[in-house]
Amino acid sequence: MTDQRRAEELSVEELEEILKRKRQEARVERLRRIASAEGERRAKPPTALASGQDQSGRRWQRPSGPRTMVRPPRGQPGRDRGEGNARAGAHGLRSARVRPLDPDPIQETSNSFLGMIASLWQGHRQRIRDGILLTVELGALVGLIAILFSSFSSLRLLNDEVAEAQRRDAAGAAPTAQAITLPGSSSPPGSGEMPEPYSHISSEGAAIVIPTPGPKQATRIVIPAIDVDSAVVEGDGWEELKKGAGHHLGSANPGEKGNCVISAHNDVFGEIFRDIQNLEPGDEVTVYAGDMPYTYVVRARRVVDPSEVSVMDPTPDPIVTLITCHPYMIDTQRMIVVGELVGSEP
Questions:
Q1: How far apart are CA 192 and CA 200, in angstroms?
Q2: Nearest-10 Cα torsion for 51, 56, 57, 60
Q3: N or C: which end of the chain has fewer CB within 10 A?
Q4: CATH of the domain at 275
Q5: CA-CA distance, 117 to 109, in Å (whole number)?
Q6: Is 103 domain-assigned?
Q7: pLDDT higher for 234 or 101?
């Protein structure tokens, strides 16, 4: 039974078997044709050659006289070929006819498959190329979006960490922001010399650890209008104000945005701020951070109770707040002088 399946439906082994069988059949057919031609040639009697005899054995003579060549008329190629074949047959020769072999099914399948691919490529080449380019562009866009999203996430996380660190630093660097009285008292803690209205708030709290001074912290204060030129130390407790003016822990450094709070005594330990009540608006106060001076101009002056600690609160603008006891030798209140930053010169 003949297999009616197409070449595309056959396996490689089946195709090889078919090819092998086709080649065997073609070889057998070719041998059969050769044997048949050889038998016909042997069965046919030899014709008379150019030896001078005809088929009956009688000799013949070549015609005498000049030999002429007669060209057959043009336009008769079929007749010429027929006569040539007749002459060849008269001499016992015949032309061999070659029958083409059957086409190879595997080669036909391969050629058809390659042709199909080539036709598809020719028909859809532009579309395939556009699709590849679109895929590459979409991939690049997705990658860019992922990078931007990751960058924004990292930036937001960094900002949150910085804000948290700043909150921790502010909480740890401003322990006296919870102070219940203003600094600058001329009486030591626990002395009992606080005036009666404020005796209940005169007790000293826990000892505050003074941080190591940094390059941006206040080191010197100069007020030309009242002949003040004093060193500034970190902290404004009783022991720190023995050494000079004291910078309130947690307040702004000189030149920075915020409230730079500096306190000093008016009647003990050098009486550094004895005359700040004489400052007028427009007078200059210079605070140094190392070798860098920052100049403030006095804008306001007032007297407050020792419990009004709001004068040390942070501010959005760079200012300096000077604090001392008031009045002189009585010390029941506080003198407050506020100056505004106007510039800095090395």
A1: 10
A2: -50
A3: N
A4: 2.40.260.10
A5: 12
A6: no
A7: 234
